[in-house]
Amino acid sequence: MANWYVNIDGNQAGPYSEADFENMRAQGMIPPNAYVWKEGMANWVFASELPGGTPAAPTMAPPPSAWPAPGVYQPTTPSSDGPNGLVIASYILGGLGLGCGCLTGIPAIVCASIAMKQPGQERHAKIALWVSIGCLIVGMVIGVTLQLAALNME
Questions:
Q1: Burial of 68 (C-beta count, 10 Å sphere; 0-12/13-18/19+)
Q2: CA–CA distance, 40 with 91 (Å, rounded to integer)
Q3: What are the residues facing 13 on neighbouring strands?
Q4: Can you list the pairs that 65-68 forms with residues at least 24 positions away whose Cβ atoms lie under 8 Å?
Q5: What is the rounded distance in angstroms from the CA atom of residue 85 to the CA atom of residue 63?
Q6: Which residues of 37-61 are buried (b: 16+ CB within 10 A; e: fewer)?
Q7: pLDDT score for 12
């Protein structure tokens, strides 16, 4: 069976199996004015042009030339809005800073600072930076408190 590709408002997705594609159509997840294509078709067509489709809006522009040519598979890369590895490392090292203080707290701050300069990571990195700084401070307070408690016990 051929795989289906869908382009809704310039956002391409797929491949979808025949069964998944039909389920998506039945649930209304593929609007009539979305372009669809599967292996073996000559061109992209409106979903409304498929058997059982509803009429498409007449104002839809033709597909951009940047779309893959029919018959040529070009996988799409998923967009990532989540934190990258440096931000995650900053959270982990910052959390460890509660027990280790400067040993992991400072590298956590460095990781978050580097991540801030990476595209799409500024918001995540700022949060990680503040968490790391907070954990470092709390870790140092805990360390000092434990040292003072040990001195009082002697």
A1: middle
A2: 48
A3: 6
A4: 67/7, 67/12, 67/35, 68/5
A5: 36
A6: bbeeeeebbbbbebeebeebeeeee
A7: 85
Cis preceding linkage at 119, omega within 30: no
User: Which residues are 11's β-sheet partners?
Assistant: 8
Q: What is the mean pLDDT of the chain?
A: 79
Quote the CA–CA distance of 88 and 111 in Å, as a whole number.
9
Q: CB neighbours of 6 closer than 8 A, spacing ≥ 6? A: 12, 13, 14, 16, 21, 24, 30, 34, 35, 36, 47
What would the two tokens of residue 45 be?
Answer: 């067509």
| The pair of three-digit structure tokens given for residue 51, joined into one six-digit string | 């058997």
User: In this predicted model, what pLDDT tens digit does every residue of 111-135 receive, in sequence order?
Assistant: 888 888 887 788 888 888 888 888 8
pTM of the model: 0.45
Torsion-angle region of residue 52: left (phi > 0), alpha (psi -120 to 50) or beta? left
